[in-house]
Amino acid sequence: MTALAKAVVLIGPMGAGKTSVGKRVAKALGVPFIDTDRAIARDHGPIPALFESLGEPGFRALERDAVARAVAQPVVVSLGGGAVLDPSTRSLLESSRVILLTVTPEAVESRIAGSDRPLLHHDGLGAWMAIAEERAPIYAALADLTLDTSHRPLSHVVDDIVEWVGTDLP
């Protein structure tokens, strides 16, 4: 098992591949993987229902708690696309190595088709584009490394991350 000095956190828009890449990076590094959206759903129920019952602010509070628990460990973590909207969540990332995964609208269109993601209910790709544009400056400000997943094989993205993280190993 690899000894990470701190959490490796994947951020980026919906459909950028944070979970798929994160699982593979964790496996390659021999460390646990935590998807905060899945942890929230496991502990509190489906995310669409949480958005409905708690509203976005209530959901973001649950998300902040999940991120705090995850980044306190030397693991690979995938955050939900909107986790970075919360200033407290952003400050939790200061002690982690943060990787921004980006994706073009053309590449993400098939990835989000038929999605049950609450923020995409009304305009699909148009909503995705508006959300991604709004969040882009926040993502960029937090990122220590940025990689595009639009047209590269996931294995190449994973290899790049594993190599980059290797500079942090004791």
From TrEMBL:
Pathway: Metabolic intermediate biosynthesis; chorismate biosynthesis; chorismate from D-erythrose 4-phosphate and phosphoenolpyruvate: step 5/7. Keywords: Amino-acid biosynthesis, Aromatic amino acid biosynthesis, ATP-binding, Cytoplasm, Kinase, Magnesium, Metal-binding, Nucleotide-binding, Transferase. Coiled coil: none annotated. ATP binds at residues 15-20, 117, 152. Pfam families: SKI (PF01202). It catalyses: shikimate + ATP = 3-phosphoshikimate + ADP + H(+). Mg(2+) binds at residue 19. It is found in: Cytoplasm. Its cofactor is Mg(2+). Binds 1 Mg(2+) ion per subunit. PROSITE patterns: SHIKIMATE_KINASE (PS01128). Its EC number is 2.7.1.71. It is an enzyme of class 2 (transferase). Substrate binds at residues 37, 60, 81, 135. Its main location: cytoplasm. It comes from the Bacteria. Monomer. Catalyzes the specific phosphorylation of the 3-hydroxyl group of shikimic acid using ATP as a cosubstrate. Belongs to the shikimate kinase family. This is Shikimate kinase. It comes from Frondihabitans sucicola.
